[in-house]
Design a protein that fits this description.
Endonuclease, Chain A; 2 domains; 23% strand; two-stranded parallel sheet; 235 residues; 13 strands
Length: 235
């Protein structure tokens, strides 16, 4: 069993690890959400294993268009979403380990903020973490007081966006799905210098999860995701 102190980028890396190594359950407690492609990739790894995901987040009287975008991602994962008033806790927990941290689930926090955290797989602490999450869940705002939806005219169409969303196979950045161009502009310029269609890349174009070199320009989608990708994007 281990308990360790984390600083800055190490906090983010351990949070990714907790999410990606979950096998049955995952609880995320965070007041604010702004997911980058790397974090979405981690959640897609968990979803691929059938992990039950619970998100506990801060209650607002009304959503912004950005809130709707982020929560729609968790809805697509099949996650249970719970709203709690005045939430300020941050906890990332799977069945065996967790990170208690100052870090919100914000893409900017992982790269630009001074953050600290504690990782543990100590059975006693993990049990305490789970107990805390259950108590938070019992204080959830009832469905009749769920946040009102955004009325912004430019709120993105989640149905359309979800159908087009994919990931650059070199950086993991979110891009539009295009099996013939699975790069963002900068990565394509880099690849185009040598035009090696078998050069090992780092991410799956369909899911955004790490591919560990199993994807390339000629094979941008991991084998396990190929059928799902063909069904979704009809290519």
């Amino acid at each position: 069993m281990a308990t360790s102190f984390l600083e800055n980028q190490n906090c983010a890396e351990e949070i990714h690890r907790v999410i990606e190594t979950a096998n049955s359950e995952l609880t995320i407690i965070t007041p604010y959400i702004d997911l980058g492609p790397r974090m979405k990739g981690s959640f897609n790894v968990a979803r691929g294993k059938g992990v039950i995901i619970k998100l506990i987040t801060r209650w607002k009287k009304k959503f912004s268009a950005k809130d709707e975008t982020e929560l729609a991602f968790f809805t697509e994962l099949g996650a249970e979403i719970i709203f709690v008033e005045r939430l300020h806790s941050k906890l990332f927990l799977n069945e065996n380990s967790g990170v208690l941290s100052s870090m919100n689930m914000l893409d900017g926090s992982a790269h630009h903020s001074q953050e600290i955290g504690i990782f543990t797989n100590d059975t006693g602490l993990v049990t305490s973490y789970k107990g805390y999450a259950e108590r938070l869940g019992s204080s959830a705002v009832t469905s009749q007081y769920a946040p009102a939806k955004s009325t912004a005219k430019n709120a993105p169409s989640q149905k359309k966006k979800s159908k087009e969303t994919a990931y650059c196979i070199r950086t993991g950045e979110q891009i539009k799905f295009n099996i013939k161009m699975p790069f963002n502009k900068k990565s394509f310029v880099s690849w185009n210098r040598f035009k090696n269609p078998e050069f090992n890349e780092q991410f799956c174009h369909f899911s955004g999860e790490k591919s560990n070199g199993e994807t390339s320009y000629s094979r941008p989608i991991l084998k396990k995701n190929w059928t799902k990708a063909k069904k979704k994007f009809k290519f």
